[in-house]
Queue: 3 jobs
Job 1
Amino acid sequence: MIDILNLLSLPFKLIWAVVSFPFSLVLNVVGFLIHSTWAIVSFPVNLVWNIGNALIGTAMSVILFFTNPFGVFSPQYAVEPSSALSVSVPLSQVDSSSAITSYQITDTVSDAEAAFSKWHPKSIRKDGETLFVSLASSRIDQEIYESAILNGFCQAVQEERAKFQGIHQVQILNEFSYSGRAFEGGVTECQELAEFSGRYLQINLASKTHMVPLP
């Protein structure tokens, strides 16, 4: 019975194959043409995109190498110094009769103490327009420096700018206060950095940073 049904359906199958062949052929040809056209059109776009990304990445790497050859950015900030906090305020260059100037220096250092409190600095002092922050670490690498500047100083600036209006350089130094990294900036520069994120933030911070040489 099954053989008879198959035999009877054979002409219909042949007719359907003949009728559907041109439609299948057209659909396959159209699909092939669309795929080929997209591949041809997208190839130069992808090529230019990949070359552009490669050039930008290379340029960033070169900039970082020449501006900051000793550190690599890391989003993980783990600073666990164990030293107790002490604040020293040098008044050797301040007129002892000027109570206002003395108060301003002490107040700025107190504000800096609060800004850097989670890094437990060994000492903080202000000399002119420069703030010196010594951390309990034998070496100030890029990770510690970026964390202290971005999450410490600039964060405090964003919260209350007036406290640090007189600061135009912040040096993050090691526990011996003789080497580290210096941020060439203050309120204005922190506001500029707030406009960036990721690698662009890193590059802009590096452009405002220099190593503090040994004396």
Job 2
Amino acid sequence: MPRLRRPSLLFLGVLTLWACRGARHQDPASRALRYEQLKADAATLRPRAEALRKVRALQRWRLLTGKQPAQRQRPQWISFRALARLRLLENNPRTSDARRRALRLQRLFLTREHMDQWPKLQLDLDRMIHARGRADDAGLSRLEQGLQRQRRLHRRAAGKLGLTLVHLEQEHLELDLPALLARSWRVVWSSDKLWATVRARLTSGHLNVGQLQRLRAGGDAAALLPADQQLPAARRLLSSLGLKLSGAVKAGPRAAAVVIGPGDVRLVTGAAPGLLGQVELLEAAGRAVCLARGPAAWELATLGQRLGPRTLGHLLGLIWLESGWRARHGAQLAEGVATGERLAALGRHRVLANLVRQRLWLASLSSQSVMAGYRLVDSPKKDDSRAAFWREAHRSHLPFRSKLGPRYIALLPLSAPPLDLRVHVLAHMLLGRLRARHGAAWYANPQLGPWLLERLCARGSVGHRKLLKGLGYKELDMAAPAKNLKQAWKEAQLKADR
């Protein structure tokens, strides 16, 4: 019979209702006993969760460094009942704020382990786009089918946890999706004129997936940033800021930071020459340095969205907008290689890459919103993610000709690290602040590195509002990226870097 198809959902609903009703009428001694029982269950679960996370991190390390990891097995000891009890302890008024955050991160990690196929999907996307350099119809179809299966698993898991799919998605992303989408349009609108100018100068007016990859790579930049100079260039920037890498460093197909545990953070250097390879390495190195400075609690050090480490990494990646840094890098190369015009071209391509990234993220966010169950304010009642993409791509002036465009955008949430406009905006806010307070050569101040570590990294995985407060901000300034990009474009246009 239909009502017997989901006995666990019925059982969990009755159990939760009974628990909530009973809790209101329990005497203090009974409530204290229940709290201790929840704590004991969580204490039993915690070391197993920590060991599982370490296994997953080591598997990722082996994969990124070219070794075949062991077959990924879904742990059988995770149950929806255990996850529900973690949530009860998390929401108990006796639980401290710090412990509540750790419990939440642990619960979200175990929830994903119980139901997700994302690691395999991420690997498939990485192989298709970055190894082969292009997106094809058959490859996208396989990934779309995988995402559809994943979404069905999410919907089923959300029901068993007593949540809607929308709430489950928001928990994992740690953001208010519709509120962020409503504000994010200012990022695009504030740079519309610059976007038109840059497109007219650097593109043919239309974009496809392959062109996006080439533009992000910075054009013909391999001679300025050869593969064997990528890591030394990254170390020079870290050193000038008073930072240094610790932990293992190995080569792999793509740059990445892998946190095995508190104090054990490893860096994969990547093998791509050119500007894209250098930016990816700088972003990964920034995350690695930041994660190594994290707290001792493994949940806060290794789980969550890691907005602080990602912001530091993104800030370091923005260094190629600075004409002074480009000139400083050019002085390290052989005479005649780094001409002023070629260095200025790097700056122009970084402006373009930032503008494209903003618009890709916004179009992707719109698709995610529809897939998660939101209906956009100005959309028809019957909507789907592909229609949402085309509408938002048009509004954000993404001139895709290829039909693969919207399908590629819909898969961007699989990218690792994931695109996040909050990180992008906050990094640009910091860049503007550092320029104003420390001058155009802010990157040569060795006191700034420790300050950034203290503000972005010391507390581990915190929400973006606490991160903003720790930096002295009240909210995200969505116009900050446009201000920096306009200045960088003007500098790269008026004169060649010297």
Job 3
Amino acid sequence: MALPLLDRFTEMFVTLPHIEMRKQYWLLGILSVWGCSQTANKQSLKVDQQQIIHPFEIRVKNSDYSQGDNWTYVLTEQELKIIYREDVVGRKDTTLLTKALPISKTLKKISQIDFSQLQGVYANSCISDGSRITVQIKKEGYTRSAHIANYYRQEVGQLIGLLNSLTPDKYKIWYNKKALIALEKECKKNQ
């Protein structure tokens, strides 16, 4: 039967009569500290790997022309910024919120959303007004841009749901899956 490593060292030092007892304990202590530090290093590497969030920049422009609202959300792995865009010539944009973001499960989930198929225009042709969202993504060697008008896309729904969890209530983006899908079905019936 194999003895644990510490028991082996203890057995070895006890059977060596030519080494003083004090030196045996000293050497045993050094080996114990070294062994514990190796275990701690391995555990910290596992934690660090779980906390890595690859760099990204996501811009979500939320326009509701019926309300005259035009907001831009700039999200990175480190920060969220919300800007009110003035469409009137001569007026400046207003930064409403700048928030440093700690590493979190939410940011990790956002960084893992696959936007590789997102491209172009997705629109409900039966609605000429209402929700208009433009999404621009830069991450992991690719850039994507899409305009979504009263239409539901799964990856955009995931993004907006997670983005809204980082945002104060008054700045949340409306992107209701059930309502948008119902509008799409109604449109298809009437065509």
